[in-house]
Amino acid sequence: MSEPLLEVEGLTKRFGSLRAVDEVDFTVEAGALDALIGPNGAGKTTLFNTVSGLERPDGGRVRLAGRRIDGLAPHEVFMAGVARTFQIPRPFPEMTVLENVMLVPPRQSGERFWNNWLAPRTVRREEVRNRERAREIIVFCGLEPVMGDLARTLSGGQLKLLELARALIAEPRIILLDEPAAGVNPVLMETLVDKILALNARGHAFLVIEHNMDLVMSICRRIMVMAEGRLIYAGGAEGARRDPAVLDAYLGGLPQ
């Protein structure tokens, strides 16, 4: 069997006496489209924050394609191949959609100010490539009509698509999506789902936190359930609907 893409072993994150993530173990295979669900306060976003480097773990290990990434700074985890989006998008509001996407690729020559004088042609060629690639991704994400608009003028659904575009230009190995459907109108949510499915069909791996159970059950092949910081279930959708621990965590039944 091939090595899992993402491996989480005994991952623990404490806040004082609270174990927000309590010795969690799971794997995500290459090309997977998995969901992480659970009631509010279960520890899902804290787990994402710990995997992506925003929080330093208090125990356990995280490996990406066999390489340990636990304890790395967020930009190091990002450059290793883990991109994540946020429930509340965080673009640069006074930059355009195109500028927001172009800004993301790491190690750009122009980031070193002296290169603008010492190697201007290299900086320019790289900027042209980044601009072309950013335009391609923006068109794919359905944001071409607002490409030149400031990010602060976008709707909630457009901001979620911008988050996805900003993740894609980094060419990550796996994308962690934090509630992509939250605050999105049905039309844009359908667009967002179509893009996720198209990307997954191309081989992109996703781990999705989502409270919209219709969405989870319709697109995710594997579901993991957290409650009180612990992983209580991992398997198919129908199994989750029948699992006693899952039903108890949701006070008698999964939301519809």
Radius of gyration: 19 Å
CATH class of the largest domain: Alpha Beta
Q: How far from one another are the termini?
A: 35 Å
CATH topology of the largest domain: Rossmann fold
How many domains comprise the coordinates?
Answer: 2
In DSSP terms (H or I, runs of 4 or more residues), the helix count works out at 10
Instruction: Count the beta strands.
Output: 10
Tell me, briefly, the overall form. Answer: globular
Q: Give the structural class.
A: alpha/beta
Oligomeric grouping of the chains: single chain
The major β-sheet equals:
6 strands, mixed
Give a written overview of the molecule:
The protein has 256 residues and is α/β, with parallel strands linked by helices. The longest helix is centred in the middle third of the chain and has 21 residues, at 120-140. The radius of gyration is 19 Å and the shape is globular. It is built from ten helices and ten strands. The model has no long low-confidence stretch (mean pLDDT 89). The two termini are 35 Å apart. It has two domains: 6-91 and 156-249, Rossmann fold, CATH 3.40.50.300; 94-153, no CATH class.
